[in-house]
Amino acid sequence: MAWWKNAVMYQIYPRSFQDSNGDGIGDIPGIISRLDHLQKLGVTGIWLSPVYQSPNDDNGYDISDYRAIHPDFGTMNDMDKLIDEAKKRDIRIIMDLVVNHTSDEHQWFEESLKGKENKYRDHYIWRDPVNGKEPNELVSVFSGSAWEFDEASGQYYLHLFSKKQPDLNWENPKVREDIYEMMNFWLDKGIGGFRMDVIDLIGKLPDQMITGNGPKLHDYLKEMHRETFGNYDVMTVGETWGVTPATAPLFASPERKELSMVFQFEHLTLDEEPGTTKWDLLDLDFLKLKQVFKKWQTELPEDTWNSLFWNNHDTPRIVSRWGNDGKHRESSAKMFAILLHLMKGTPYIFQGEEIGMVNRPISDISQAEDIETINIYHERMAKGHTHDDVMRSINAKGRDNARTPMQWDGSRHGGFTTGEPWLEVNPNHKDLNVAGNLDQSDSVFYTYQQLIQLRKDNQLVIKGDFNMLLEDHPQLFIYERAYEGEVWTVVANFSDEPCEAAIHGKEEDQTVVLSSTNKNSYDLTELKLEPFETFVVKRK
Ligand code: TEU
Ligand code: CA
Prior knowledge:
By secondary structure, the chain is of the alpha/beta class. Helices cover 27% and strands 16% of the residues.
Protein backbone atom coordinates (compact mmCIF):
# COMPACT_ATOMS: atom_id res chain seq x y z
CA MET A 1 0.00 0.00 0.00
CA ALA A 2 1.30 3.52 -0.80
CA TRP A 3 3.12 4.98 2.24
CA TRP A 4 0.91 8.06 2.27
CA LYS A 5 -2.21 5.96 2.88
CA ASN A 6 -0.75 4.95 6.28
CA ALA A 7 0.64 8.41 6.98
CA VAL A 8 -0.41 11.18 9.33
CA MET A 9 0.73 14.58 8.11
CA TYR A 10 1.66 17.68 10.13
CA GLN A 11 1.48 21.16 8.62
CA ILE A 12 4.14 23.66 9.64
CA TYR A 13 3.67 27.38 9.00
CA PRO A 14 7.41 28.11 9.27
CA ARG A 15 7.07 31.77 10.27
CA SER A 16 5.25 30.74 13.44
CA PHE A 17 6.74 27.39 14.44
CA GLN A 18 10.11 27.98 16.17
CA ASP A 19 12.56 30.86 15.99
CA SER A 20 16.21 29.84 16.48
CA ASN A 21 18.07 33.17 16.17
CA GLY A 22 15.99 35.63 18.18
CA ASP A 23 14.69 37.71 15.27
CA GLY A 24 11.10 36.85 16.18
CA ILE A 25 10.53 34.87 12.98
CA GLY A 26 10.31 31.08 12.86
CA ASP A 27 12.99 29.42 10.74
CA ILE A 28 14.29 26.09 9.42
CA PRO A 29 16.93 25.53 12.14
CA GLY A 30 14.06 26.06 14.59
CA ILE A 31 12.03 23.35 12.85
CA ILE A 32 15.01 20.98 12.99
CA SER A 33 15.27 21.62 16.74
CA ARG A 34 11.64 20.50 17.14
CA LEU A 35 11.69 17.33 15.00
CA ASP A 36 11.80 15.18 18.16
CA HIS A 37 8.44 16.68 19.17
CA LEU A 38 6.97 15.55 15.86
CA GLN A 39 8.57 12.12 16.15
CA LYS A 40 7.08 11.79 19.66
CA LEU A 41 3.66 12.76 18.28
CA GLY A 42 4.14 10.04 15.67
CA VAL A 43 3.61 11.92 12.39
CA THR A 44 5.22 10.59 9.21
CA GLY A 45 5.06 13.62 6.93
CA ILE A 46 5.47 17.38 7.25
CA TRP A 47 3.65 19.72 4.86
CA LEU A 48 5.94 22.74 4.96
CA SER A 49 4.26 26.02 3.97
CA PRO A 50 6.49 28.08 1.65
CA VAL A 51 10.06 28.86 2.71
CA TYR A 52 11.16 30.21 -0.69
CA GLN A 53 12.43 33.72 -1.52
CA SER A 54 9.42 36.07 -1.30
CA PRO A 55 8.57 39.73 -0.53
CA ASN A 56 5.98 38.28 1.90
CA ASP A 57 3.02 40.16 0.49
CA ASP A 58 1.08 36.96 1.19
CA ASN A 59 3.58 35.47 3.65
CA GLY A 60 5.46 33.36 1.16
CA TYR A 61 2.59 32.42 -1.16
CA ASP A 62 4.08 35.06 -3.46
CA ILE A 63 7.31 33.44 -4.61
CA SER A 64 10.10 35.47 -6.23
CA ASP A 65 12.61 32.58 -6.52
CA TYR A 66 11.49 28.93 -6.33
CA ARG A 67 15.06 27.71 -5.90
CA ALA A 68 16.18 30.03 -3.11
CA ILE A 69 15.33 29.93 0.60
CA HIS A 70 14.12 33.20 2.14
CA PRO A 71 16.96 34.44 4.42
CA ASP A 72 14.43 34.83 7.27
CA PHE A 73 14.07 31.02 7.19
CA GLY A 74 17.75 30.16 6.63
CA THR A 75 19.82 28.73 3.78
CA MET A 76 19.51 25.94 1.23
CA ASN A 77 21.97 24.00 3.42
CA ASP A 78 19.47 24.33 6.29
CA MET A 79 16.76 23.02 3.95
CA ASP A 80 18.89 20.04 2.90
CA LYS A 81 19.61 19.37 6.58
CA LEU A 82 15.90 19.47 7.43
CA ILE A 83 15.11 16.91 4.70
CA ASP A 84 17.93 14.71 6.00
CA GLU A 85 17.17 15.06 9.73
CA ALA A 86 13.47 14.39 9.09
CA LYS A 87 14.32 11.29 7.05
CA LYS A 88 16.38 9.95 9.99
CA ARG A 89 13.11 10.08 11.95
CA ASP A 90 11.09 8.44 9.15
CA ILE A 91 9.44 11.78 8.40
CA ARG A 92 9.13 13.03 4.81
CA ILE A 93 9.05 16.70 3.85
CA ILE A 94 6.16 17.72 1.57
CA MET A 95 6.91 21.08 -0.07
CA ASP A 96 4.24 23.68 -0.84
CA LEU A 97 3.96 24.11 -4.62
CA VAL A 98 2.57 27.56 -5.48
CA VAL A 99 2.41 27.67 -9.28
CA ASN A 100 -0.90 29.33 -10.06
CA HIS A 101 0.98 32.61 -9.66
CA THR A 102 4.38 34.02 -8.75
CA SER A 103 5.39 37.19 -6.95
CA ASP A 104 5.56 40.32 -9.09
CA GLU A 105 9.21 40.41 -7.96
CA HIS A 106 9.95 37.11 -9.71
CA GLN A 107 12.50 37.54 -12.51
CA TRP A 108 9.93 36.19 -15.01
CA PHE A 109 7.45 38.95 -14.17
CA GLU A 110 10.13 41.62 -14.08
CA GLU A 111 11.01 40.56 -17.66
CA SER A 112 7.34 40.36 -18.63
CA LEU A 113 6.87 43.97 -17.50
CA LYS A 114 9.57 45.13 -19.91
CA GLY A 115 7.14 45.02 -22.81
CA LYS A 116 4.99 43.06 -25.24
CA GLU A 117 8.02 41.81 -27.18
CA ASN A 118 9.78 40.34 -24.14
CA LYS A 119 10.07 36.55 -24.28
CA TYR A 120 8.53 36.33 -20.80
CA ARG A 121 5.51 38.52 -21.69
CA ASP A 122 3.29 35.49 -22.20
CA HIS A 123 4.41 33.83 -18.98
CA TYR A 124 1.57 35.91 -17.53
CA ILE A 125 -1.95 36.88 -18.56
CA TRP A 126 -2.06 40.32 -20.21
CA ARG A 127 -5.17 41.85 -21.79
CA ASP A 128 -6.05 45.17 -23.43
CA PRO A 129 -8.57 47.44 -21.71
CA VAL A 130 -12.20 47.07 -22.78
CA ASN A 131 -13.94 50.45 -23.19
CA GLY A 132 -11.00 51.96 -21.29
CA LYS A 133 -11.55 49.69 -18.28
CA GLU A 134 -10.67 46.28 -16.82
CA PRO A 135 -11.10 43.49 -19.41
CA ASN A 136 -13.94 41.89 -17.40
CA GLU A 137 -15.55 41.49 -13.97
CA LEU A 138 -13.15 38.94 -12.49
CA VAL A 139 -12.45 39.81 -8.84
CA SER A 140 -9.53 39.00 -6.52
CA VAL A 141 -9.91 36.68 -3.50
CA PHE A 142 -8.20 39.52 -1.62
CA SER A 143 -10.78 42.17 -2.59
CA GLY A 144 -11.03 44.42 -5.65
CA SER A 145 -10.61 43.70 -9.34
CA ALA A 146 -8.45 40.76 -10.48
CA TRP A 147 -6.95 43.06 -13.14
CA GLU A 148 -4.08 45.50 -12.48
CA PHE A 149 -3.28 48.20 -15.04
CA ASP A 150 0.31 48.63 -16.27
CA GLU A 151 0.80 52.22 -17.52
CA ALA A 152 3.93 51.41 -19.54
CA SER A 153 2.24 48.90 -21.84
CA GLY A 154 -1.36 50.12 -21.49
CA GLN A 155 -2.45 46.58 -20.66
CA TYR A 156 -3.87 44.83 -17.58
CA TYR A 157 -2.44 41.69 -15.98
CA LEU A 158 -4.51 39.10 -14.12
CA HIS A 159 -4.09 38.36 -10.38
CA LEU A 160 -6.71 36.20 -8.67
CA PHE A 161 -4.98 37.02 -5.38
CA SER A 162 -3.04 40.16 -4.51
CA LYS A 163 -1.77 42.47 -7.27
CA LYS A 164 1.72 41.32 -6.20
CA GLN A 165 0.71 37.74 -7.18
CA PRO A 166 0.33 37.79 -11.01
CA ASP A 167 -1.23 34.60 -12.40
CA LEU A 168 0.99 32.42 -14.57
CA ASN A 169 -0.26 31.64 -18.08
CA TRP A 170 -0.49 27.85 -18.04
CA GLU A 171 -1.61 27.79 -21.67
CA ASN A 172 2.00 28.72 -22.49
CA PRO A 173 4.05 25.49 -22.83
CA LYS A 174 7.20 27.39 -21.80
CA VAL A 175 5.60 28.20 -18.43
CA ARG A 176 4.82 24.53 -17.89
CA GLU A 177 8.33 23.52 -18.92
CA ASP A 178 9.91 26.03 -16.51
CA ILE A 179 7.65 24.85 -13.65
CA TYR A 180 8.36 21.15 -14.28
CA GLU A 181 12.12 21.83 -14.30
CA MET A 182 11.80 23.55 -10.91
CA MET A 183 9.71 20.68 -9.51
CA ASN A 184 12.35 18.14 -10.54
CA PHE A 185 14.99 20.28 -8.81
CA TRP A 186 13.07 19.78 -5.56
CA LEU A 187 12.20 16.12 -6.19
CA ASP A 188 15.88 15.35 -6.78
CA LYS A 189 16.54 16.66 -3.25
CA GLY A 190 14.57 13.74 -1.85
CA ILE A 191 11.40 15.53 -0.74
CA GLY A 192 8.34 13.43 -0.02
CA GLY A 193 6.03 15.27 -2.41
CA PHE A 194 4.01 18.44 -2.92
CA ARG A 195 0.96 20.17 -1.52
CA MET A 196 -0.38 22.07 -4.54
CA ASP A 197 -1.70 25.56 -3.83
CA VAL A 198 -5.06 26.33 -5.57
CA ILE A 199 -4.11 23.82 -8.25
CA ASP A 200 -7.67 23.73 -9.64
CA LEU A 201 -7.12 27.29 -10.93
CA ILE A 202 -4.28 26.55 -13.38
CA GLY A 203 -6.73 25.66 -16.16
CA LYS A 204 -8.35 29.12 -16.03
CA LEU A 205 -9.77 30.77 -19.17
CA PRO A 206 -10.12 34.37 -17.99
CA ASP A 207 -11.75 35.61 -21.20
CA GLN A 208 -14.62 33.20 -20.52
CA MET A 209 -14.55 34.13 -16.81
CA ILE A 210 -13.54 30.53 -16.06
CA THR A 211 -11.20 30.22 -13.05
CA GLY A 212 -11.61 26.80 -11.31
CA ASN A 213 -11.72 23.48 -13.17
CA GLY A 214 -10.91 24.84 -16.62
CA PRO A 215 -11.11 22.53 -19.64
CA LYS A 216 -7.35 21.81 -19.79
CA LEU A 217 -6.78 21.43 -16.03
CA HIS A 218 -6.47 17.64 -16.12
CA ASP A 219 -4.34 17.71 -19.26
CA TYR A 220 -1.86 19.87 -17.35
CA LEU A 221 -1.95 17.60 -14.27
CA LYS A 222 -1.39 14.49 -16.39
CA GLU A 223 1.54 16.20 -18.11
CA MET A 224 2.91 17.33 -14.72
CA HIS A 225 2.64 13.75 -13.40
CA ARG A 226 4.44 12.44 -16.48
CA GLU A 227 7.17 15.08 -16.47
CA THR A 228 7.87 15.24 -12.71
CA PHE A 229 6.48 13.50 -9.61
CA GLY A 230 5.14 10.44 -11.48
CA ASN A 231 8.76 9.28 -11.67
CA TYR A 232 9.28 9.29 -7.88
CA ASP A 233 7.77 7.49 -4.86
CA VAL A 234 6.16 10.67 -3.57
CA MET A 235 2.69 11.94 -2.67
CA THR A 236 0.77 14.92 -3.97
CA VAL A 237 -2.24 16.65 -2.44
CA GLY A 238 -4.12 19.28 -4.39
CA GLU A 239 -5.87 22.24 -2.77
CA THR A 240 -9.16 22.16 -4.67
CA TRP A 241 -11.79 24.39 -3.09
CA GLY A 242 -14.64 23.41 -5.38
CA VAL A 243 -14.12 19.63 -5.53
CA THR A 244 -17.01 17.20 -4.85
CA PRO A 245 -17.05 13.40 -4.39
CA ALA A 246 -18.01 13.22 -8.08
CA THR A 247 -15.03 15.28 -9.29
CA ALA A 248 -12.41 14.18 -6.72
CA PRO A 249 -11.72 10.95 -8.69
CA LEU A 250 -10.79 13.07 -11.71
CA PHE A 251 -7.84 14.32 -9.62
CA ALA A 252 -7.08 11.33 -7.41
CA SER A 253 -8.14 8.05 -8.99
CA PRO A 254 -4.80 6.23 -9.53
CA GLU A 255 -5.68 5.27 -13.11
CA ARG A 256 -5.85 8.99 -13.92
CA LYS A 257 -2.13 9.35 -13.13
CA GLU A 258 -2.64 12.81 -11.64
CA LEU A 259 -2.61 13.40 -7.84
CA SER A 260 -2.61 11.16 -4.76
CA MET A 261 -5.45 13.01 -3.04
CA VAL A 262 -7.12 16.41 -2.76
CA PHE A 263 -8.20 18.74 0.04
CA GLN A 264 -11.94 19.22 -0.12
CA PHE A 265 -13.49 22.14 1.81
CA GLU A 266 -17.21 21.39 1.81
CA HIS A 267 -17.31 20.88 5.61
CA LEU A 268 -15.47 24.18 6.16
CA THR A 269 -17.90 26.29 4.15
CA LEU A 270 -21.03 25.24 6.08
CA ASP A 271 -20.88 28.26 8.42
CA GLU A 272 -21.07 30.90 5.71
CA GLU A 273 -24.23 32.18 4.04
CA PRO A 274 -24.67 30.18 0.82
CA GLY A 275 -23.26 32.05 -2.18
CA THR A 276 -21.45 34.60 -0.03
CA THR A 277 -18.02 34.69 1.61
CA LYS A 278 -16.57 33.30 4.84
CA TRP A 279 -17.04 36.74 6.42
CA ASP A 280 -20.89 36.40 6.27
CA LEU A 281 -21.28 34.29 9.37
CA LEU A 282 -23.84 31.50 9.73
CA ASP A 283 -24.27 29.11 12.65
CA LEU A 284 -23.13 25.60 11.88
CA ASP A 285 -25.89 23.20 10.81
CA PHE A 286 -24.74 20.06 12.65
CA LEU A 287 -26.87 17.67 10.62
CA LYS A 288 -25.39 19.10 7.40
CA LEU A 289 -21.89 18.62 8.84
CA LYS A 290 -22.64 14.95 9.46
CA GLN A 291 -24.05 14.58 5.95
CA VAL A 292 -20.95 16.11 4.37
CA PHE A 293 -18.64 13.75 6.26
CA LYS A 294 -20.88 10.77 5.44
CA LYS A 295 -20.82 11.72 1.76
CA TRP A 296 -17.02 12.00 1.64
CA GLN A 297 -16.60 8.76 3.60
CA THR A 298 -18.99 6.72 1.45
CA GLU A 299 -19.32 8.21 -2.06
CA LEU A 300 -15.68 8.17 -3.20
CA PRO A 301 -14.80 5.19 -5.40
CA GLU A 302 -12.78 2.53 -3.56
CA ASP A 303 -9.57 3.55 -5.34
CA THR A 304 -9.82 7.30 -4.64
CA TRP A 305 -8.06 8.37 -1.45
CA ASN A 306 -9.32 11.07 0.92
CA SER A 307 -7.65 13.74 3.02
CA LEU A 308 -8.95 14.67 6.47
CA PHE A 309 -8.42 18.01 8.20
CA TRP A 310 -10.07 20.57 10.46
CA ASN A 311 -7.38 23.25 10.39
CA ASN A 312 -4.77 24.88 8.21
CA HIS A 313 -3.00 28.26 7.94
CA ASP A 314 -6.05 29.78 6.18
CA THR A 315 -8.76 28.71 8.62
CA PRO A 316 -9.75 29.71 12.16
CA ARG A 317 -8.90 27.20 14.91
CA ILE A 318 -11.63 24.52 14.94
CA VAL A 319 -11.95 24.50 18.76
CA SER A 320 -12.94 28.18 18.63
CA ARG A 321 -15.01 27.76 15.48
CA TRP A 322 -17.25 24.78 16.35
CA GLY A 323 -16.06 23.60 19.75
CA ASN A 324 -15.68 25.59 22.94
CA ASP A 325 -12.51 27.56 23.66
CA GLY A 326 -13.59 28.28 27.22
CA LYS A 327 -14.25 25.71 29.91
CA HIS A 328 -14.67 22.84 27.44
CA ARG A 329 -11.54 23.62 25.40
CA GLU A 330 -9.71 20.36 26.07
CA SER A 331 -12.75 18.08 25.76
CA SER A 332 -13.86 19.69 22.49
CA ALA A 333 -10.29 19.53 21.13
CA LYS A 334 -10.19 15.80 21.94
CA MET A 335 -13.60 15.32 20.29
CA PHE A 336 -12.41 16.85 17.00
CA ALA A 337 -9.28 14.72 17.11
CA ILE A 338 -11.05 11.41 17.74
CA LEU A 339 -13.87 12.07 15.25
CA LEU A 340 -11.44 12.91 12.42
CA HIS A 341 -8.57 10.49 13.02
CA LEU A 342 -10.67 7.33 12.99
CA MET A 343 -12.18 8.16 9.60
CA LYS A 344 -10.88 6.84 6.26
CA GLY A 345 -8.19 8.98 4.62
CA THR A 346 -4.89 10.69 5.45
CA PRO A 347 -5.28 13.02 8.46
CA TYR A 348 -3.49 16.40 8.55
CA ILE A 349 -2.64 18.07 11.88
CA PHE A 350 -2.00 21.83 11.73
CA GLN A 351 0.70 23.07 14.13
CA GLY A 352 -0.77 23.66 17.60
CA GLU A 353 -3.87 21.55 16.90
CA GLU A 354 -2.19 18.72 18.84
CA ILE A 355 -2.42 20.80 22.04
CA GLY A 356 -5.79 22.40 21.30
CA MET A 357 -4.64 25.90 20.40
CA VAL A 358 -7.42 28.42 19.82
CA ASN A 359 -8.14 31.74 18.08
CA ARG A 360 -6.57 34.97 19.33
CA PRO A 361 -9.19 37.76 19.13
CA ILE A 362 -8.10 41.30 18.22
CA SER A 363 -9.87 44.62 18.89
CA ASP A 364 -8.23 46.79 16.24
CA ILE A 365 -7.25 46.13 12.62
CA SER A 366 -3.72 47.40 13.42
CA GLN A 367 -3.21 44.07 15.23
CA ALA A 368 -3.89 42.14 12.01
CA GLU A 369 -1.06 41.03 9.75
CA ASP A 370 -2.77 39.05 6.98
CA ILE A 371 -3.38 40.86 3.66
CA GLU A 372 -6.75 39.13 3.21
CA THR A 373 -7.97 40.39 6.59
CA ILE A 374 -6.64 43.93 6.17
CA ASN A 375 -8.17 44.23 2.69
CA ILE A 376 -11.60 42.95 3.74
CA TYR A 377 -11.62 45.36 6.69
CA HIS A 378 -11.10 48.37 4.45
CA GLU A 379 -13.45 47.04 1.77
CA ARG A 380 -16.29 46.48 4.26
CA MET A 381 -15.74 49.72 6.17
CA ALA A 382 -15.89 51.57 2.84
CA LYS A 383 -19.21 49.83 2.17
CA GLY A 384 -20.63 51.13 5.44
CA HIS A 385 -20.28 48.06 7.70
CA THR A 386 -19.67 48.93 11.36
CA HIS A 387 -16.24 48.37 12.92
CA ASP A 388 -17.73 45.87 15.41
CA ASP A 389 -19.48 43.95 12.61
CA VAL A 390 -16.28 43.61 10.57
CA MET A 391 -14.14 42.75 13.61
CA ARG A 392 -16.64 40.05 14.55
CA SER A 393 -16.16 38.45 11.11
CA ILE A 394 -12.38 38.84 11.34
CA ASN A 395 -12.21 37.30 14.82
CA ALA A 396 -14.36 34.41 13.62
CA LYS A 397 -12.66 33.71 10.29
CA GLY A 398 -9.43 35.71 9.91
CA ARG A 399 -6.33 33.74 8.93
CA ASP A 400 -4.13 35.28 11.65
CA ASN A 401 -6.07 33.11 14.12
CA ALA A 402 -4.16 30.11 12.77
CA ARG A 403 -0.85 31.92 12.46
CA THR A 404 -0.10 33.01 16.03
CA PRO A 405 3.19 31.43 17.12
CA MET A 406 3.38 27.84 18.39
CA GLN A 407 3.03 27.69 22.18
CA TRP A 408 5.90 25.51 23.44
CA ASP A 409 5.93 26.47 27.13
CA GLY A 410 4.65 29.02 29.63
CA SER A 411 7.67 31.33 29.36
CA ARG A 412 7.66 34.75 27.68
CA HIS A 413 6.45 34.41 24.08
CA GLY A 414 5.68 30.75 24.73
CA GLY A 415 9.22 29.60 24.06
CA PHE A 416 8.71 30.51 20.38
CA THR A 417 11.32 33.27 20.37
CA THR A 418 13.77 35.07 22.64
CA GLY A 419 13.10 38.20 20.58
CA GLU A 420 9.92 40.11 19.72
CA PRO A 421 7.53 37.79 17.79
CA TRP A 422 6.44 38.92 14.30
CA LEU A 423 2.84 38.26 15.43
CA GLU A 424 1.71 38.34 19.06
CA VAL A 425 1.74 34.97 20.85
CA ASN A 426 -1.72 34.17 22.24
CA PRO A 427 -1.67 35.38 25.88
CA ASN A 428 -3.20 32.02 26.90
CA HIS A 429 0.15 30.32 26.22
CA LYS A 430 0.94 30.49 29.95
CA ASP A 431 -1.52 27.65 30.57
CA LEU A 432 -1.84 26.23 27.05
CA ASN A 433 1.47 24.88 25.76
CA VAL A 434 3.37 21.75 24.72
CA ALA A 435 5.31 21.44 27.98
CA GLY A 436 2.10 21.47 30.02
CA ASN A 437 0.52 18.89 27.69
CA LEU A 438 3.50 16.58 28.10
CA ASP A 439 3.16 16.79 31.90
CA GLN A 440 -0.56 15.93 31.81
CA SER A 441 -1.23 12.24 31.12
CA ASP A 442 -4.71 12.82 29.66
CA SER A 443 -3.82 15.93 27.61
CA VAL A 444 -4.91 16.72 24.06
CA PHE A 445 -1.36 15.88 22.93
CA TYR A 446 -1.56 12.31 24.25
CA THR A 447 -4.99 11.88 22.64
CA TYR A 448 -3.44 12.74 19.24
CA GLN A 449 -0.44 10.49 19.98
CA GLN A 450 -2.77 7.61 20.85
CA LEU A 451 -4.90 8.12 17.71
CA ILE A 452 -1.82 8.12 15.47
CA GLN A 453 -0.65 4.90 17.12
CA LEU A 454 -4.11 3.33 16.68
CA ARG A 455 -3.89 4.09 12.95
CA LYS A 456 -0.47 2.45 12.77
CA ASP A 457 -1.65 -0.65 14.68
CA ASN A 458 -5.07 -1.23 13.11
CA GLN A 459 -5.73 -1.79 9.42
CA LEU A 460 -9.41 -1.22 10.30
CA VAL A 461 -8.69 2.52 10.53
CA ILE A 462 -7.04 2.51 7.09
CA LYS A 463 -9.32 0.10 5.26
CA GLY A 464 -12.53 -0.37 7.27
CA ASP A 465 -15.98 0.38 5.89
CA PHE A 466 -17.75 3.49 7.19
CA ASN A 467 -21.33 3.59 8.42
CA MET A 468 -23.03 6.52 10.13
CA LEU A 469 -25.59 5.90 12.95
CA LEU A 470 -28.36 8.16 14.26
CA GLU A 471 -27.82 10.60 11.38
CA ASP A 472 -30.64 12.84 12.58
CA HIS A 473 -29.58 13.02 16.21
CA PRO A 474 -29.15 16.75 17.03
CA GLN A 475 -26.14 16.27 19.37
CA LEU A 476 -24.46 12.93 18.69
CA PHE A 477 -22.00 12.24 15.88
CA ILE A 478 -21.74 8.43 15.68
CA TYR A 479 -20.12 6.27 13.08
CA GLU A 480 -18.80 2.77 12.79
CA ARG A 481 -15.77 1.31 11.04
CA ALA A 482 -15.88 -2.39 10.18
CA TYR A 483 -13.05 -4.60 8.97
CA GLU A 484 -12.54 -8.37 8.97
CA GLY A 485 -15.27 -9.00 11.52
CA GLU A 486 -14.24 -6.25 13.94
CA VAL A 487 -16.45 -3.19 14.46
CA TRP A 488 -15.39 0.09 16.10
CA THR A 489 -18.15 2.48 17.21
CA VAL A 490 -17.09 6.13 17.53
CA VAL A 491 -19.48 8.25 19.62
CA ALA A 492 -19.15 12.01 20.12
CA ASN A 493 -21.39 14.39 22.03
CA PHE A 494 -20.88 17.29 19.62
CA SER A 495 -22.29 19.86 22.05
CA ASP A 496 -21.58 21.76 25.26
CA GLU A 497 -24.66 20.15 26.86
CA PRO A 498 -24.79 16.71 28.53
CA CYS A 499 -26.52 14.01 26.47
CA GLU A 500 -28.44 10.85 27.36
CA ALA A 501 -29.17 8.28 24.66
CA ALA A 502 -29.58 4.62 23.81
CA ILE A 503 -27.67 3.80 20.66
CA HIS A 504 -27.38 0.05 20.53
CA GLY A 505 -28.73 -3.16 21.91
CA LYS A 506 -26.69 -4.67 24.77
CA GLU A 507 -23.27 -5.69 23.50
CA GLU A 508 -21.52 -8.20 25.68
CA ASP A 509 -18.06 -8.48 24.21
CA GLN A 510 -17.24 -4.82 23.64
CA THR A 511 -14.13 -3.12 24.97
CA VAL A 512 -13.26 0.57 25.21
CA VAL A 513 -10.56 1.59 22.71
CA LEU A 514 -10.39 5.24 23.74
CA SER A 515 -12.34 7.63 25.97
CA SER A 516 -11.89 11.39 26.21
CA THR A 517 -12.94 11.14 29.85
CA ASN A 518 -10.80 8.08 30.68
CA LYS A 519 -13.82 5.85 31.30
CA ASN A 520 -13.19 2.12 30.86
CA SER A 521 -16.75 1.02 30.12
CA TYR A 522 -19.84 2.34 28.36
CA ASP A 523 -23.38 0.91 28.29
CA LEU A 524 -24.64 1.76 24.81
CA THR A 525 -28.21 1.10 25.92
CA GLU A 526 -28.17 4.02 28.38
CA LEU A 527 -25.44 6.52 27.64
CA LYS A 528 -24.93 9.56 29.85
CA LEU A 529 -22.34 11.76 28.15
CA GLU A 530 -20.64 14.91 29.40
CA PRO A 531 -20.28 17.91 27.06
CA PHE A 532 -18.06 16.94 24.08
CA GLU A 533 -17.39 13.52 25.64
CA THR A 534 -16.15 11.17 22.91
CA PHE A 535 -15.33 7.49 23.06
CA VAL A 536 -14.62 4.45 20.91
CA VAL A 537 -15.69 0.88 21.66
CA LYS A 538 -14.88 -2.22 19.65
CA ARG A 539 -16.52 -5.58 19.27
CA LYS A 540 -15.82 -8.69 17.31
O1 TEU B 1 -5.34 29.48 -0.43
C1 TEU B 1 -6.37 29.47 -1.38
C2 TEU B 1 -7.34 30.48 -0.99
O2 TEU B 1 -8.14 30.90 -1.77
C3 TEU B 1 -7.33 30.91 0.42
O3 TEU B 1 -6.74 32.18 0.42
C4 TEU B 1 -8.71 30.85 0.94
O4 TEU B 1 -9.61 30.67 -0.10
C5 TEU B 1 -9.10 32.12 1.58
O5 TEU B 1 -8.15 32.41 2.56
C6 TEU B 1 -10.47 31.90 2.17
O6 TEU B 1 -11.01 33.17 2.43
C7 TEU B 1 -4.04 29.26 -0.93
C8 TEU B 1 -3.10 29.37 0.27
O7 TEU B 1 -3.41 28.34 1.20
C9 TEU B 1 -3.29 30.74 0.87
O8 TEU B 1 -2.54 30.88 2.08
C10 TEU B 1 -2.83 31.77 -0.15
O9 TEU B 1 -3.11 33.07 0.35
C11 TEU B 1 -3.58 31.59 -1.47
O10 TEU B 1 -3.71 30.24 -1.91
C12 TEU B 1 -2.79 32.29 -2.59
O11 TEU B 1 -1.59 31.59 -2.78
CA1 CA C 1 14.39 33.34 13.14
